Amino acid sequence: MKKSIISLAVITAIPMFTSIEVVAADEVQAIEKIQVTGSRIKRSDMESASPITLISADDIQAMGATSIDSVLQKMTATGGAMTNPGVNNGSGGNARIDLRGLGAQRTLVLVNGRRMINSGTGAASTVDLNTIPVSMIKQVEVLKDGASAVYGSDAVAGVVNIILKDDFEGLELNANTAITGEGDASENSIDFTVGSSFDKGNIVIGMQYTDRGKASQADRDFSKCPIDEGVDGLFCTGSAYNEGGHIWNGNGAKGTTVNAKGEDTQVSLIDDDGVTGRGGDYHRYTNEDSYNYSPTSYLYTPMERLNLTGIATYELSDDTSLFTEFTYTKRWSEQQMAPQPVWFDFEYTQAMGDSMLNQSYDQRVDLDGDGYLDKDADGNYVTQEMNYKYGDKISYGRRMSDTGERYFEQSVDTVRAVIGAEGLIGDYAWDVSANFGRNDSVDKLSNLHNMGAIGDQIDAGTFNPLDQQAWVSDNFRKNVYTEVNNGGSQLFILAAAVSGELLELPAGYAAFAAGVERRQEKAWFTPDSLTAQGLANDPRVEATSGGFDVNEAYLELAIPLLADKPFAEHVELSAAIRAFDYSTFGSDETWKLGLTWKANDELMLRSVVSTAFRAPTVNELYSGNSPSFDQVDYPGAQKQAEVTVGGNSALTPEEADTLTVGLVYEPQWFDGFSMTVDYFDIDIENAITKVDSQYIVDQCLNNAANATTPLCQSAGISIDATGRIKFNNKIQNIGSEKTSGYDLNLAYNFEAAGLNWRAGLDTTYLDEYVKQVTGDPVEYAGVITSGSGGYAEIKSNLSLKVAGDSWDAQYKARYISGMDSFKCIGKEDTCYAPTTPSVVYHDVSGSYLINETVALTAGINNLFDKQPPYYSGNNDSNTDPYTYDVLGRRFFASMSIKF
């Protein structure tokens, strides 16, 4: 039978997931009222004016995935900084989805059509995908369009709706295992799902336990040491905060220690006992003295996770049912980084010995007394060699390998419970529900040092920082402590809705959905007491606490305009409006208009224009001041600037205009083939962001002409004797972002050699992604950054599946086009690798049904062991773990038993 274009509008949205079967027309008609993501109207078809991607449970299993983030992040419509297990520095063990590269905060995550609690560590403001039990997923619907008029805040880039198994019957057991070709990053998972139906309802219970192992940066050639660039090419380098200690200058005055180019440089290395392997007396610092921090950093982070799920329905009467959902997740996760770098100033006294008196440094001078540092005829600063002396203020840095690596540990509990009722009154469907969620986290950071106490001991003369033995003494160990922070978030929603048919029009019945919601959110973060006092070497971190409530009402309409006309088999207008009133900023509204034009059985056109918004989160509104260490470039300065960030209670919502236009084509002359093409355009104003840190450095550091500007006055920028740049940079409604591009999806189903085949190609072309905060707009399309991930112009997934009676096999190729390094734009000749090459990952997998009870699945991801590329200005591990696979070849296998 000819497959229905109604279903193809949705089903062909992402042929990468090749186990999705196209629904036959008579099967679609058999569905009695369903609700597709992007609409609250329950209807008997699957037509949608918006592009929707479907991912089935079989797709997830075929990819060897035990967490949904590893599936979603491979979609071509994703980009930017998607937190995943390969992100060691700053991930907190979380996993995020980022549609269109617009940020995880602009992608709304739903479970069974209702909001999921913001989760993870601290005052979480996005959903941690670890809280989603993969074994309980029936399918995932991804709406690649703005949907604030339907769902409210956050649905700017799109919506991910995770639908759980609510009608499962029987018992299913699954055991999964995976390991890399290097023998590390093992992952083992076991789960069971049991369900039963009875006269009045159904109950489903699921449990999944996952144990993920680690990999070290030392175990891959591309990441075993930090790479820097010189005139002779690439070389291993590291941090100036090294074992044994490091002196910057002798008097603490900014900029007095320089090389011939006027760049601030490190001068002396404490190395009496050969700690760094150099041996001998003190000497001038060279690259050989730098500390290689890679071997002690994870390349892939370990985690344990327990997911519990319960779903039940109970029929009170023929027209009324009760339903409930419960999920609980316990996560234990870890990251590891190099020993803590510490830095502080002290006065060099006689009590510290005479070891520094014969050491020297180069100091810029003002010999003619005109108030300006002297330069020679070539423009280089004039310096004089100076000796240290008693009374000098010493700027000192040290890598604390004496006490061990820093261990980051998180323990996170996330619970979500929904209870409600639904039914029919005449021809109208109704439902009411209460949705409660709570997330509690404890994160620990071990092997930190109480720098306040160490400073007091230096002042009291009981600790000599120039004595190597003092750093490893039993008394010094008393300064080592574990930071313990607590955080959490809470969500409570009361909702009521009604939907049905309004009236009969010449082209069919007009339908509607209407509802009201009241949502309350709060979040908090309580830092460790020493951290809150600023005694942990880093600046003090303030607490976060606050909340808001919002009342919302919405109305959605589906109006048939034409039916059974030439070139207009069915034309429908959809419209939605939502009004909201927030306790934090007041009231407003958002709207959507959509049109589907089904010309005939072969061709359907569709378009949606809408407004969307994102309300500021609790963390954005009420976050206390805390330090952020951002990558910057400035002659003689450290690469990481100390930036004070924090919330802003005066924030207002982000506002967006969205447009999608597309077509669905299934030619009768090419049986089994289908195509969808969609253009998207998202324009965000009033964006909540901070000024680019590099921009502040360029505009404000040592720039007297800009000293009185509001930007530089609020930044309060400075640079200390160690070359550490410091400034303030709190979030504001000052940005704009615009992105546009095309999604192309091709699918072909056919039979050959007695087998069923399916081929698919899913491609996203990013035409533009422009950000503007201050200064000129910046184009990110085709660019890879040092901390915000990559924005490839072309991402494409090719898939081929073949199935027999009791087996199937799949091949997938994932393409990421080459990108330009953001750091090198306009100065490509100064970079060793100003671009990345295009990358293709190849995956193979297969399943075999032994009998009606037992099935086996196995596969290899990254079949040819493709290594991530190096690029100048990289993020971590000399590459970008947000964008590229850092593990290499990975083998997986699973067994499924069903009764």
TrEMBL record:
For this protein, the record's PROSITE patterns field holds: TONB_DEPENDENT_REC_3
Instruction: Give the main location.
Output: membrane
Its record classes its membrane topology as:
Multi-pass membrane protein
- In this record, what's one Pfam family? TonB_dep_Rec_b-barrel
> What protein name is recorded for this chain?
TonB-dependent receptor
Family (UniProt): Belongs to the TonB-dependent receptor family.
Lineage: superkingdom: Bacteria
The residues covered by the TonB-dependent receptor plug domain are 46-159
What GO annotations for molecular function exist for this entry?
A: oxidoreductase activity
Question: Which positions fall inside the TonB-dependent receptor-like beta-barrel domain?
Answer: 366-863
Which compartments is it annotated to reside in?
Answer: Cell outer membrane
Q: Which CDD domains match?
A: ligand_gated_channel (cd01347)
Q: What UniProt keywords apply to this chain's record, in alphabetical order?
A: Cell outer membrane, Membrane, Oxidoreductase, Receptor, Signal, TonB box, Transmembrane, Transmembrane beta strand, Transport
Signal peptide per UniProt: 1-24
